[in-house]
Amino acid sequence: MPIADVDICNLACAKLGAEPIVSITDNNPRSAAFNRTYAMFRDKLLRTYRWSFTTKYTELSALATVVPPYPAFEYAYAYPLPDDCLSVDLAG
């Protein structure tokens, strides 16, 4: 079962001895700090470390036509990445 973002933030609050928050969008200084930084730090950690639970395998379909920013002279095919893609690990 996935853990909600606010639960992870509350674990940090508990570790720091701060009061828990109800929502990241609440109008208090702790919630505002989490709202500004949580997604940025989460994505940085997911890009930096190869966590086994974050790996997702998928087959990509080539685009019908190669359009900019893909240089036509360099590649024969172009593949759109999924919206939730943070990094690519090429498998041969």
Description:
The chain has 92 residues and is mainly α. Helices cover 35% and strands 0% of the residues. It has 2 helices and no strands. It is elongated, with a radius of gyration of 19 Å. 3% of the residues are buried.
Unreliable residue stretches: none
Q: What is the overall silhouette? A: elongated
- Derived from helix and strand composition plus strand pairing, the structural class reads mainly alpha
By oligomeric state, this entry counts as single chain
Q: Percent of residues in helical segments?
A: 25-40%
The total count of strands amounts to 0
**Count of runs of 4 or more consecutive helical residues:** 2
How confident is the prediction overall: mean pLDDT?
Answer: 84
Instruction: State which percent range the strand residues make up.
Output: under 5%
Termini Cα gap: 32 Å
In a nutshell, what does this entry contain?
The chain contains 2 helices and no strands. The protein is 35% helix and 0% strand. The mean pLDDT is 84.
